[in-house]
Specification:
This protein has 250 residues and is α/β, with parallel strands linked by helices. The chain has one domain: Alpha-Beta Complex (Spore Coat Polysaccharide Biosynthesis Protein SpsA, Chain A). The protein contains 8 helices and 9 strands. Helix 3 packs across helix 6 and helix 5 packs parallel to helix 8. The longest helix has 20 residues. Bound molecules: guanosine-5'-diphosphate and magnesium ion. The site of guanosine-5'-diphosphate (GDP) has 18 residues, from strand 1, strand 2 and helix 3.
Length: 250
Amino acid sequence: MQIRLSVVIPALNESGRLPPSLERIGSFLADNPVWLPAEIIVVDDGSMDGTGEAARTAKLPNEIDLRIANHRKNLGKGAAVRTGFGLSAGKWVLLTDADLSTPIEELPLLVSAAEDGGVAIGSRAVQRHLVEVRQPRHRDFMGRTFNLIVRTLGLTKIHDTQCGFKLFPGNLARGLASVQRLDGFAFDVELLVIARSWGYLIHEVGVRWRHIEASRVLAVRHSSQMLRDLLRLWWWRITGALPQPMKDSR
Ligand SMILES: Nc1nc2c(ncn2[C@@H]2O[C@H](COP(=O)(O)OP(=O)(O)O)[C@@H](O)[C@H]2O)c(=O)[nH]1
Ligand SMILES: [Mg+2]
């Protein structure tokens, strides 16, 4: 029977928060068996704290297959998502952060938005009152500036490309995995720009979200990498170097 849902979780040093998150996802899916059989793919991106082994301790229903991929060294969230999407087999692929800043219970909202075969992405910008715990001020500022640059470069009109809760048709996710190039945190923009250029609609959906401490994002290092990557993406776009649609991506 085809896997209905692949949940892809990029993980860096998540031995503490990952097992409870996996169990929460497991019990949500068990309560909503339309999603079964499902698989959860954890991509341990060169963690130093035994993230992969910790993930294996989570107790999950039998109809959920837990798969763990390892990068020997840290390659970045974009690279981890590429690995996870490439391994996925589901009709739908959900990308979620290990800390479940957006609770898994918001999945049905994305599903209804993606019913037309498009992509549905969680957003903190369309219904701001759904943000239960805001990010620290400097992160909020970084996020707004990043989005301003994304829009100024004409990459997309989406207001929040960076929320870690996105639902893709499975074939699209696998098509993206074979062409996506950015390894760092700007990969979300690249995925959305390519998907849009292949004709997929992108639906931005207000979801609940709460900031959870212990971020892996380093303000200076990651902002400069993200800026450089946005410029690369812009360049690929104006020079026609974005990937052509895959024949089987739809
Ligand atoms: N694979 C991988 N995942 C990462 C990396 N950095 C962050 N993550 C994951 O990306 C998700 C979001 O990270 P988090 O630190 O919560 O970011 P924040 O919520 O934006 O501050 C979590 O699942 C992290 O484990 C990385 O370098 N590689
Ligand atoms: Mg987080």
